[in-house]
């Protein structure tokens, strides 16, 4: 059965909303229907510049988007401090919610959002785009193959970029009243998600923030690192920063194999992405090289990962709207586990680098 496309409203005109607007257009089962900003003029300008159809609704408030009976789902790219208000309101208005990360300032706020979504029977998903790239599923196959990868022992994750002076002074991600989690919430979210993905979303027993956290004059994190520990001895370490060259590396080490990928958040190229694997590696006889050498694998895709994310989200919304299905619980569960670890890292920093237990 061919179902009508899901009609999206966007709350706000953040820079990331440009990318997601394009993704909504590229996705075969979604359409740009409305945008709301704090002024009609700003919303109209955003719609003109980002491929909205002429029939799209332009509103001078976020409430107006939520009050539009034809809007099926909303994308919320607002500052993290505003998520609890607008995500809860969206759910109460029976709008499905695609929520930009970090999803909340803490797990208490997130639980309020999730409760509102569950009460209203609407789907919620966070906008962690790389989870939807076909490369991610292909890498999971390798990690799940005991003969090739073996038992997971450690994960290393790093996401950094060198922010310019204007960003470090004016961007919402360095403002305590807007995005108080700073680099931990922005780039650190991806690191934590990559680690949890590698361990098949088994929560660690504890986390320990590493000394050397960099704060701005307002106390917002600009760079930090942490180690995670599991009951069975698995370990992971991540580093996130607004102060170092662009790096997006993940390494997953098992007893038999190793997985590397160097562009995990945004692939080097839009329609293909690579990863390397090494299996039972050793040195040659003179210890001058590796045998066997790591192998490179490339995965192609017709649609970019953000469009695949929109397509999957819209499929779930469509199944609820047209087939009376229940919301998929996997995605809010992944959001909550990521938030729990993020909260524990923040607590470890605030307690002077104490070990903090991760509570489910």
Structure description:
- The chain is an alpha/beta fold.
- It has two domains: 6-129, 3-Layer(aba) Sandwich (Rossmann fold), CATH 3.40.50.720; 131-305 and 339-357, Dihydrodipicolinate Reductase, domain 2 (2-Layer Sandwich).
- Helix content is 35%, strand content 28%.
- The chain is built from ten helices and 17 strands.
- The protein has helices at residues 15-26, 40-49, 62-67, 83-92, 107-120, 134-144, 165-170, 182-198, 305-323, 330-350; strands at residues 6-11, 30-36, 57-59, 73-76, 96-99, 124-126, 152-162, 206-215, 221-229, 235-241, 243-254, 257-261, 272-279, 282-283, 290-291, 295-300, 355-357.
- The strands form three sheets. The chain has a nine-stranded mixed beta sheet, with helices on one face. It has a six-stranded parallel beta sheet with strand order 3-2-1-4-5-6, with helices on both faces. It has a two-stranded antiparallel sheet with strand order 14-15.
- A hairpin with a 6-residue loop joins strand 14 (282-283) and strand 15 (290-291).
């Amino acid at each position: 059965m061919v179902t009508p496309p899901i009609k999206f409203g966007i709350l706000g005109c953040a820079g990331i909303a440009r990318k997601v607007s394009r993704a909504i257009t590229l996705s075969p089962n979604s359409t740009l229907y409305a945008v709301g900003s704090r002024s009609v003029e700003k919303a109209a300008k955003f719609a003109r510049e980002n491929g909205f159809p002429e029939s799209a609704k332009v509103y001078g408030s976020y409430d107006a988007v939520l009050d539009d009976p034809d809007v099926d789902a909303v994308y919320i790219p607002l500052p993290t401090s505003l998520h609890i208000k607008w995500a809860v309101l969206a759910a109460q208005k029976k709008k499905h919610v695609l929520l930009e990360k970090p999803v909340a300032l803490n797990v208490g706020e997130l639980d309020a959002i999730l409760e509102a979504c569950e009460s209203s029977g609407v789907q919620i998903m966070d906008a962690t785009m790389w989870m939807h790239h076909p490369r991610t599923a292909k890498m999971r196959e390798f990690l799940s193959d005991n003969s090739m990868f073996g038992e997971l022992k450690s994960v290393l994750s790093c996401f950094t970029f060198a922010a310019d002076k204007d960003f470090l002074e004016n961007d919402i991600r360095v403002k305590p009243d807007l995005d108080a989690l700073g680099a931990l919430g922005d780039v650190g979210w991806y690191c934590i998600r990559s680690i949890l993905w590698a361990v098949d979303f088994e929560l660690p027993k504890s986390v320990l923030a590493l000394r050397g956290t960099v704060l701005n004059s307002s106390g917002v994190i600009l760079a930090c690192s942490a180690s995670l520990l599991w009951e069975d001895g698995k370990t992971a370490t991540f580093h996130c920063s607004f102060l170092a060259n662009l790096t997006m590396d993940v390494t997953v080490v098992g007893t038999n194999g190793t997985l590397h990928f160097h562009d995990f958040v945004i692939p080097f190229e839009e329609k293909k992405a690579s990863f390397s694997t090494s299996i039972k590696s050793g040195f040659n006889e003179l210890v001058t090289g590796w045998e066997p050498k790591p192998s490179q694998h490339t995965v192609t895709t017709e649609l970019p990962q953000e469009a695949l994310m929109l397509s999957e989200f819209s499929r779930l919304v469509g199944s609820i709207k047209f087939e009376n299905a229940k919301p998929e619980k996997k995605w809010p569960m992944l959001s909550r586990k990521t938030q729990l670890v993020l909260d524990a890292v923040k607590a470890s920093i605030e307690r002077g680098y104490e070990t903090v237990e991760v509570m489910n």
